[in-house]
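Shape matters. As here.
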Amino acid sequence: MNIESTEFGSITIDGEKLDHDIVIYPDKIEKRKKWITKEKHGTSHKFTREEMEEYLNQVDTEKLRVILIGT
């Protein structure tokens, strides 16, 4: 997986330009579950513990070395 570029409102990975928030796992990319934070704060311009826990539940945290959050 190669992150080629980032710019306001998009990220290009392996030649595919994505214009929505994403979560990158070692083996997949999925759309960010903004609704988790939006339900609590009325906006998705924040990032909550509950949202992070949702993503961490999908990985082996014993092998986790890096968490990168970009805005």
Observations:
- The two ends are 20 Å apart (CA to CA).
- The chain has a mean pLDDT of 91.
- Residues 42 and 58 are 25 Å apart (CA to CA).
